[in-house]
């Protein structure tokens, strides 16, 4: 009886201790176990979301007007300008793969964000100089046929410096924000599910201000003033980030996740001739979770890799990591391999999204943008409709749909992550069909009256549908890649999500090149010198067809996908493994 009472007291003490302190391998700014009440949670994550707002304001202030700047100031033709934007966007969204790796393996998320924000700020300052310093301006007067070569060089160097800054900023900041919540604390875990929705809200608020206020300044005041504003905003965000240092929870860098995966492959090859044990329970595993790594349960599939966890007394006495891996490390490699089909089948969705920052904006420039006699909407400001659609979707989804779906399905998220992504992909098909119909109408009007007689708000439906689709698919992709990667690869997980958009931009450029070459051989290219001599409606129909066919493949892949199988930190017995919140893939 006394023993039972002692056990109850110990359990109550442990529960109280875990309510007061955070035992998820994170530390506070002095390297101590964090106090739950004064670190992390919404207090820290809202500071981080505010920084994301500032960065997205700067990025979209540049990105959405880039095609206008390239055609009007640098005098590139439509096809070249679209490719230049796609290449820059592609590099910008693929650089996070490098930034995420550096954050997870070497610098940690906080210092990676700090360093990359400084690089980002340097790019903005250089961009400002290209518009302000007389010798770096496009030309000596307001109108010029050909920009100075030095301006072109400095301009492209500046925007690619911003790409490098974004490469470290994006994956590290978002994963750093999600790190502020403890997965094994019920209240914080539920808050973490809402974090990605509110992250997207801050993201979209920055986009909305960037494509309205900043674009208006670019269009009606000057590019130089807009660049000065963006530089000041980024400098302010850097100060805010540093001020919040004492409120954050940090993750210590332990080892390179890439090295761990290579070790598993090498160990599996060395033991390829060993027989499988009669039960997975005989595979090697540590007695408790390692720092920054929760234990994963064994799953079926990719059984060759399981051989890395077979304990052989003849060679594994010293437990060399190049000869013996734990079940958890094997399962981490399986997680990454199983993500590849999902990554590949989301690329067509990314190609559709790429059109909203290139051809959609250029379409806006050809239409009637007058609101009143004295006010005309800047072409890039139409992107605000997409941001509004995404903000509305995120709020409705988080506050209305999730509670309703949670009661209906019993899933804590409402619907599975992959189902959410699938809904967004369906909407991307719809956006391309609507865009094609509107473009065909615009071309018909051009032949009769000229496209300037057609209101720019004919483009509103395609922008809104893209925004609503992003509220499902983009937020779902963020959550999927953060949640399903190994715990030691959280920054790389966000980088994987961003790489979908980056690779899709390169594929969009490649597709434009192929379609241009093929249709030109057929008589007339779909991409002329300007929009009125092009057939974008055919291109949009092609994208809708590709994405629709790919959607069927995605459903097959998603239905066979197995979610991360995690063992609770509070459980010592491997048999008590539990599957993630999403036990079923797409039903």
From TrEMBL:
Pfam short name (any one): PTR2
Mode of membrane association: Multi-pass membrane protein
Cross-referenced InterPro entries: MFS_trans_sf (IPR036259), NRT1/PTR (IPR044739), POT_fam (IPR000109), PTR2_symporter_CS (IPR018456)
Cellular localisation: Membrane
The entry's keywords: Membrane, Phosphoprotein, Transmembrane, Transmembrane helix
Listed CDD domains: MFS_NPF5
Segments traversing the membrane: 57-75, 87-103, 110-129, 149-167, 195-217, 223-243, 381-405, 417-438, 458-482, 494-518, 538-561
PROSITE patterns, per the entry: PTR2_1
Similarity remark: Belongs to the major facilitator superfamily. Proton-dependent oligopeptide transporter (POT/PTR) (TC 2.A.17) family. Belongs to the major facilitator superfamily. Phosphate:H(+) symporter (TC 2.A.1.9) family.
Cited PANTHER family: OLIGOPEPTIDE TRANSPORTER-RELATED
Record's protein name: Protein NRT1/ PTR FAMILY 5.6-like
Organism name: Solanum pennellii (Tomato)
The organism's taxonomic lineage, starting at the top: Eukaryota, Viridiplantae, Streptophyta, Embryophyta, Tracheophyta
């Amino acid at each position: 009886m006394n023993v039972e009472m002692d056990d109850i007291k110990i359990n109550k003490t442990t529960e109280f201790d875990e309510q007061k302190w955070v035992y998820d391998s994170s530390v506070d700014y002095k390297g101590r176990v964090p106090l739950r009440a004064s670190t992390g949670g919404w207090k820290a994550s809202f500071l981080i979301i505010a920084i994301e707002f500032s960065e997205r304001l700067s990025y979209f202030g540049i990105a959405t007007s880039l095609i206008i700047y390239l055609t009007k100031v640098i005098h590139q033709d439509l096809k070249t300008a679209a490719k230049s934007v796609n290449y820059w966007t592609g590099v910008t969204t693929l650089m996070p793969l490098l930034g995420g790796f550096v954050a997870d393996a070497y610098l940690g998320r906080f210092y990676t964000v700090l360093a990359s924000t400084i690089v980002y700020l340097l790019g903005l300052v250089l961009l400002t100089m290209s518009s302000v310093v007389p010798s770096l301006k496009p030309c000596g007067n307001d109108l010029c046929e050909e920009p100075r070569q030095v301006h072109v060089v400095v301009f492209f160097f500046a925007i690619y410096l911003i790409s490098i800054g974004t490469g470290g900023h994006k994956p590290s900041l978002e994963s750093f924000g999600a790190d502020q919540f403890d997965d094994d604390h019920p209240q914080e875990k539920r808050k973490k599910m809402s974090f990605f929705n509110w992250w997207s809200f801050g993201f979209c608020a920055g986009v909305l201000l960037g494509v309205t206020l900043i674009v208006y300044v670019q269009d009606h005041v000057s590019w130089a003033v807009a660049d000065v504003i963006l530089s000041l905003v980024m400098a302010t965000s850097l100060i805010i980030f540093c001020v919040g240092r004492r409120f954050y929870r940090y993750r210590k860098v332990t080892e390179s996740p890439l090295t761990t995966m290579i070790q598993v492959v090498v160990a599996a090859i060395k033991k390829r001739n060993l027989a499988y044990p009669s039960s997975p329970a005989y595979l090697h595993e540590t007695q408790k979770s390692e720092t920054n790594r929760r234990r994963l349960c064994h799953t079926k599939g990719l059984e060759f890799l399981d051989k890395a966890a077979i304990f052989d007394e003849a060679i594994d006495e010293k437990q060399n990591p190049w000869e013996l891996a734990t079940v958890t490390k094997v399962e981490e490699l399986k997680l990454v391999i199983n993500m590849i089909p999902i990554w590949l089948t989301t690329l067509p969705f990314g190609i559709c999204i790429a059109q909203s920052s290139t051809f959609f904006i250029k379409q806006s420039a050809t239409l009637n943008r007058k609101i009143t006699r004295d006010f005309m909407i800047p072409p890039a400001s139409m992107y605000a409709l997409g941001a509004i659609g995404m903000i509305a979707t995120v709020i409705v989804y988080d506050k209305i749909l999730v509670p309703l779906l949670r009661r209906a399905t019993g899933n804590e998220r409402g619907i599975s992550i992959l189902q959410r992504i699938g809904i967004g992909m369906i909407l991307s098909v719809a956006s391309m069909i609507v865009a094609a119909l509107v473009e065909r109408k615009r071309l018909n009007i051009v032949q009769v009256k000229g496209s300037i007689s057609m209101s720019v708000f004919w483009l509103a439906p395609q922008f809104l549908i893209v925004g609503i689709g992003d509220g499902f698919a983009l937020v779902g992709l963020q959550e999927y890649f953060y949640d399903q990667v190994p715990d030691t690869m959280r920054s790389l997980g966000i980088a994987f999500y961003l790489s979908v958009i980056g690779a899709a931009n390169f594929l969009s450029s490649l597709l434009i090149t192929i379609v241009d070459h093929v249709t030109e051989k057929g008589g007339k290219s779909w991409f002329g010198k300007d929009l009125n001599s092009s057939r974008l409606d055919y291109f949009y129909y092609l994208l809708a067809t590709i994405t629709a066919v790919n959607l069927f493949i995605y459903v097959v892949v998603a239905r066979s996908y197995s979610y991360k199988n995690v063992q609770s930190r509070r459980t010592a017995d491997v048999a008590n493994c539990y599957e993630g919140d999403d036990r079923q893939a797409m039903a």
